[in-house]
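Note to self: keep these together.
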Amino acid sequence: MKSNTDASSFYSLMQNQAGDLLLIVDAEETEPRDPLLIYDGGDTMLLHRNIDSTRALRNLQDNVPKTLLSAKSVHVVEYDGDDLVRDYDVTVRIVDDVNALIW
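Structure:
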């Protein structure tokens, strides 16, 4: 069973002084189940939220590859407008080619 891969309409990836990563995305209706952040060192990462929801986050900033390649996890927050809908941690999995995983 393949999941749908959509480009996210909004996202922001930030790092605090301690090196922790925070990913802010638009909220979805479904709950995340075993979420995973998939990355290959390029300018696209995938946020796999559940079997039916995977987002392609494209056009990453130049400083992101080094940060993500060394990260073990990222804290994700989902917003609907100004309302926080949910927050959770995702494990980062490094792969050879993210684009081979996009359907």
